[in-house]
Amino acid sequence: MGFPLLSLIVFTPAAGAAFLIFLRSDNAMRWTALAVTVIDLALCILMLARFDTATHAMQFTETRPWVPALGITYALGIDGISALFVFLTGLLGWICVLASWVAIDRKVKEFMISLLVMQALMLGVFCALDLFLFYVFWEATLIPMYLIIGVWGGEGRVYAAFKFFLYTLAGSLLFLIGVIVLYFHGGETFDILALTAQDLPFQVQAWLFFAFLIAFAVKVPMVPVHTWLPDAHVQAPTAGSIILAGVLLKMGAYGFLRFSLPMLPEASVHYSTLMLVLSALAIVYGGLLALAQDDLKKLVAYSSISHMGFVTLGIFALNFRGLEGGILQMFNHGVTTGALFLFVGLIYERTHTRSMADYGGLMKAAPVYTTFLALFTLSSMALPGTNSFVGELLVLSGGFAANLAVGAAAVLGALLGAAYLLGMYRKVALGPASVGARFKIRDVNAREMTAILPLAVFVLWVGLYPKPFLNIIDASVKHLLAQVHAKGGGQ
Amino acid sequence: MTAADLLQSILASLPEIVVVTGACILLILGQFVRKGQEHFLVWASVAIVLIAAVGTLMLASEVRPAYTGMFIADRFAAFFKVVFYLATVLTFLLSPKYADVEGIGSSEYYVLLLFALSGMMIMASATDLLSIYVGLELMVLCTYVLTGYLRQQRRSNEAALKYVILGAVSTGIFLYGVSLVYGLTGTTQLDGMAAAAAGDPLDPGLLLAVVFIVAGLVFKVGAVPFHMWVPDVYEGAPTTVTAFMSVGPKAAAFAVILRVFLNPLVAATDVWIVVAVVAVVTMALGSFVALVQDNFKRLLAYSSIAHAGFAIFGVVAGGADGIASVMLYLLIYTFMNLGIFGIVIMMRNGNISGEVIEDYSGFAKPHPGLALLMLLYLFSLAGIPPTAGFFAKFYVLVALVERGFVILAVIAVLLSAVAAYFYIRIVMVIYMREPGRAFDPALTPLVRAALAFTAAGTIGIGLFPAWFLRLAQQSVFGG
């Protein structure tokens, strides 16, 4: 078993949260939270450095009995797919702390504790190799997120928090029943790898597929169960939005990759067209909605729906390029949209308005800010040279191979993306400094720069040289595809 | 009955004897306790319960039938008795300050609780419909009196009267069912019944008898359609008594329900269909009506109806896992429900009633620690991991799915999503509002101890359920 690196990664933030209880000064809490998240990121980097990209097998595994009477174990382990998201979570963790440095000025202790607990739980979701453990982590994220939105959010925070909580709870409860059914079909075990090796009758697979679909689709979110997302995003504090967009949404797509595809291969192949159509719908509909927004945060939120549509499209294209692109796009979306929410948060701290009509000519007042905003905007619309281009290209080529019409719809969505993002940039950054002039806007400071720079690095790194990232997921994706097509047929 | 049998019987029922004798002694001693020395009553009562607990644990090693088949001391009974002891001791710890504030501090209060405890213990051990009846009446008579203990308040009087009348009717129905069973089988012993009527389990007369017995018992757990008394009684009774009633007598009724329903005779009558309908309707009503409550105690009353519904799902599942799931559920429910009631009791101080949910607005600001405890209890009641409440629900669902009742499991989880709303609404009130006034919680060391203990149980069982699960599974009778 060796050194429990994953447990350390998962529980470092939790231990940090426990430590925060004993601190009194707000600044000490901020610095401690930052230190804890940076240590966690260092551990994640250590994990990646020791990660063996040649194999699809689970690595760094740990197993301990937890509830032996029901076959529940405490089992952690990662393959290439989860490794990428563990890293993404670690990367965004300390950026969230930086983003809430001054934005959160009341109940700092509770906020930082929620943030750290949240990070521990999300890391747990990506590391869990036991379905019960996975579900505990998955569901427990509701508690800190509910508080983050509801206590530190904007005007309509209470409504948004309720909506978020009840939507996701209702979705995941059916997943719970699915898990229990799976448990009895799979010989009374919650071991994910053992359950993956099972052959289930198609009828059972179909039922489970839809039970899982509800839970994951709400999280992703896919149209038509996306309506909690704009509320939650708009009301959440900046760090909450970054977590939501950066990691929480990925948990849904990760669920498809970890459970639906390998455990229910026949159903996944059988219903892949349905999923492709839903994805295309999300891409186009999300894009159209984003086009109609005046609120900056809402625009980014709806663009998230559109972009996550690309992710599910890639996944359910069920071919190599689609899957690789989908997974890479999840990482890219975490970086880019996380950055965009950070930018919206930064400007909101200065002006206290998110309406695009209030802005204009920001280029003159804050040149550094607008330059980086341009980078992330271009990244979000998948300009060649940025990270999303690689991901989206892979997704599109996979999508066209799977279904011509869906691929075409996705291209339309990409065009819409260019339209609303460029429109946004024009209204905010360019033009005469009309209404914007009444704000005394200072440019980004060193702390903000520290949060922005790493994200910018990843935008360009993935955009120009994506090989290391694709290498991480390569073996696992190939294995996953082999599993799906060996049992589910197709291709 | 030979002298040796008698001795064995006395040994088997030693904990009950300890509690009853202790209560009688306390009744006399209580007359000599002067004002300001009420703490003696608490410690004496706790000591009596602890002695009984030691006895129960020492007797739990083997199955001891007693009193010619009327009574049994087995692990199943021992498990339930431990739940009762927990509920009673925690109630004792929460009581003194509250009794002080309400002006109801007298020795009879503790004596009545002890007698109620002995009634519950007899119920858990009873294996004859008549001894069940004796235990049941002993318990409910004490709770009738305790409900009306706030003599100066009309609300309390009204609640007690309602409770007495409805309770008497339900007991009458139960007894009528018992008399029918006796007429059909010639016995009231649970084991004897099954043997006597092995011929035709679908005899309409027997079905009628079983339905009457079910109705009488379901009244005690507050399941639909016999739930009407619950909100009024819970609201009117002193909060400490409400806390006690929501866990102790309810668990006792479930002990009886498990013994009666899972009797081979009753199990053969398709009565589970009735029980399944009762479970669904109970949970639905409890969850939906609780959504619109503004009074904390009424809300908890409906929440307890909903939880009773969920536990009945475990009864429907039946089998070893079904029984164990109900037992574990009740144990966990004891911790989390007494925890949240402990908060409500603590808030009753000075001129704050602590009964209106709005009273808690912004509670998290001046008292972050207590608010965190409330958060824990409420999320546990809502069934969100990693709290114990989640594991309780999870195990019931496992038992349901194991028996093939997937549809029932789906209904159960969907209704618990509805129920989650009113728990997190309270979390919203305490965390997301600004405090409107100063809080003055009556945080005595005893209340602290009770809260710490319930919190430890609520999170501890959630994180490490293995030991408790095994305990429940090993305590299932006949298996």
Question: Secondary-structure blueprint of this entry?
Answer:
The complex is a heterodimer of chains A (491) and B (479).
Chain A (H helix, E strand, L loop, with lengths): L4 H16 L5 H24 L9 E9 L4 E7 L1 H20 L8 H20 L3 H10 L1 H11 L4 H29 L6 H5 L5 H18 L8 H8 L2 H26 L1 H6 L1 H20 L4 H22 L2 H32 L10 H4 L1 H14 L6 H16 L1 H26 L16 H19 L2 H22 L3
Antiparallel strand pairs in A: 1-2
Chain B lengths: L2 H10 L1 H16 L9 H21 L4 E3 L4 E3 L1 H28 L4 H19 L3 H19 L6 H32 L4 H7 L7 H18 L7 H8 L2 H23 L2 H4 L3 H20 L5 H22 L1 H29 L20 H15 L5 H15 L3 H27 L12 H19 L2 H9 L5
Antiparallel strand pairs in B: 1-2
Helix pairs in contact in B: 2-3, 2-5, 3-4, 3-5, 4-5, 4-11, 4-15, 4-19, 5-6, 5-11, 6-7, 6-11, 7-9, 7-10, 9-11, 10-11, 10-14, 11-14, 11-15, 13-14, 13-18, 14-15, 14-17, 14-18, 15-16, 15-17, 15-19, 15-20, 16-18, 16-19, 17-18, 17-19
Described by the principal axes of the CA atoms, the overall outline of chain A is globular
Q: What general outline of chain B do the C-alpha atoms trace?
A: globular
Count of helical regions of chain B: 20
**What's the gyration radius of chain A in Å?**
21 Å
Integer count of domains of chain A = 1
Trace the largest sheet of chain A across and list its strands.
1-2
Distance between the termini of chain A: 38 Å
Mean pLDDT of chain B: 89
Spell out the helices and strands of chain B N to C.
HHHEEHHHHHHHHHHHHHHHHH
Q: Give the oligomer, counting copies of the same chain as homo and different chains as hetero.
A: heterodimer
| SSE order of chain A | HHEEHHHHHHHHHHHHHHHHHHH
Low-confidence stretches of chain B: none
Mean pLDDT of chain A: 89
Could you describe the 3D structure shown?
The complex is a heterodimer of chains A (491) and B (479). In chain A, α3 packs antiparallel against α20 (446-464) and α17 (367-380) packs antiparallel against α19. In chain A, β1 and β2 form a beta hairpin. Helices cover 75% and strands 3% of the residues of chain A. Chain A has one domain. Chain A has a two-stranded antiparallel ribbon. The mean pLDDT of chain A is 89. Chain A has 491 residues and is mostly helical. Chain A contains 21 helices and 2 strands. The two termini of chain B are 29 Å apart. In chain B, β1 and β2 form a beta hairpin. Chain B is globular and about 65 Å long. Chain B is built from 20 helices and 2 strands. In chain B, strands 1-2 form a two-stranded antiparallel ribbon. Chain B has helices at residues 3-12, 14-29, 39-59, 75-102, 107-125, 129-147, 154-185, 190-196, 204-221, 229-236, 239-261, 264-267, 271-290, 296-317, 319-347, 368-382, 388-402, 406-432, 445-463, 466-474; strands spanning 64-66, 71-73. In chain B, α14 packs antiparallel against α18, α15 (319-347) packs antiparallel against α17 and α16 (368-382) packs antiparallel against α18 (406-432). Chain B is mostly helical. Chain B has a domain at 270-479. The chains are: A mainly alpha (491), B mainly alpha (479). Chains A and B meet through β1, α5, α6 and α7 of A and α16, α17, α18 and α20 of B.
